[in-house]
Amino acid sequence: MRDPSNVLQQEAIGILGVNLIYAAFYELQTKESFLEGLAQDVVRERIEIDFVDFRGPAFAGWDRLTLLAYLARAGLAEAVFFSSTGATVPPTEVLYKRAVVLAPGYFGHVDPAHGQIHAQMLAAGIQELRKELGETSSPPIGIFCLTAATLRPAEPAPEIPDLLRRINALLAQGGDVLLFRERELYTMTALVNRYTKAPVRFVAGLSLLIRAFDDSYFHLEGRRLEALSRLFAQNVRIYAYPMTAVDLHESIKSFSATRLEWSETNGWVSAEHLRVAPPLGHLYAYLLASNFLVSMQIPAALTADA
Predict the structure, then answer these.
(1) Could you give the CA distance from residue 36 to residue 38 in angstroms, rounded to a whole number?
(2) Dihedral angle over CA of 164, 169, 171, 172, nearest 10
(3) What is the DSSP string of 63-91?
(4) Considering the entire predicted model, what is its pTM?
(5) Rounded CA gap, 95 and 193, in Å?
C-alpha cells in the first residue's frame, strides 16, 4: 500500500476489489489481460502486487512462475521472489528481519560450470557476512538477483521466457532468486530495507562493479553521487569478488569507457588491485578505504587451480 493515510488505502483496496470481480468475469482470456484488468487505476501509484496465487479449474493452465515474472516485468511489483524449494511466497516473508547477501547479475550462461561459479560467489558472500555478524546472530540468507529491465537504453527488455530460463537455472543450483523491476543496485537496497534493518550486503564480480560505476545515472539529479548515496544509505556494503584477468578483460571490453589498470596474482584480479583513472578513481579509493567496498581475497583453491 502506497497511500499515506488509512482512508486512501481503504479506497484503493475497494478499487482493487471491484477490479478483481470484473477481471474474474471478463478478463480471463490470458494471464496478462487478467492482471492488467486487476491493476487498472491503482497499481504503481497506489498499490504493489508482489505475489499472486490462483486456484480452481479456471486457472489450471496458468503457470505460477510466469505470473510472478510478469508482475515484475509489467511494473506491478518492485520485486518478486522465487524459491528453490518450490514454495511461492511474497518477498516480505523471506526478508523480514534477516541479514541478507544479494548476488546481482545477468546470469545469461546457464551451464553447470558457470552455475558453480555463481554458487561459489554467493556462498563466499554469506561466509563473509557471517564473520561480520559473529556466531551469536542468526545466519544470513543469500539470494540471487535479476532485473526485468533492459541493461542498456537502446535494448528491449528481456522477454519472460528468457527471464524464466535464467531463473530456473539458478533454482536448479539450489539458489533462491529475487526478480526486480529495475536494474540499479540502489533500488534493490530500498526494497530489502523495507523489511529488515539487519545488514545488507551485495556480492558482485568486478565486471558488474565496474558497470555500476561506469553508469552516469542521468535520470537522477545528483547523477552518480546520488546513486551511491542511495545505495549505501542503510547499512549496506559491497563484497567485490575477484575475477581472472582474462574474464575481466573479456567482460568489460564491450561497455566500459573508464580507463582501468590492474595487477594480477596467479592470473586473478581483486578489487584492491584494480586502479581506476581519476576523477572516478578517487571515489573508488574512498569506498575501499571506508569499507563500503570490501575486497574479497582470492580463494586458496582457485589460486591453486590457476
Answers:
(1) 5
(2) 140
(3) -HHHHHHHHHHTTS-SEEEE-TTS----H
(4) 0.90
(5) 9
Task: List the grid coordinates of 178.
Answer: 529475487
CA separation for the pair 180, 202 (Å, rounded): 14
Contacts of 252 (CB under 8 A, 6+ apart): 207, 210, 211, 260
Instruction: Compute the distance between CA of residue 61 and CA of residue 220 in angstroms, rounded to an integer.
Output: 42
Per-residue pLDDT of the chain (306 residues; tens, 9 = 90+): 888 899 999 999 999 999 999 988 888 888 888 888 888 887 667 889 999 888 888 788 888 899 999 999 988 999 999 999 988 899 999 999 999 999 999 998 878 888 888 999 999 999 999 999 987 678 899 999 999 998 877 788 899 999 999 999 999 989 999 999 999 999 999 999 999 999 999 999 999 998 888 888 988 999 999 999 999 988 999 999 999 999 888 888 776 666 888 999 889 999 999 999 888 899 999 999 999 999 998 766 455 444
The grid coordinates of residue 276 equal 581506476
Under CATH, which number does the domain 76-305 receive? Answer: 3.40.50
Note whether 173 and 122 are within 8 A (CB): no
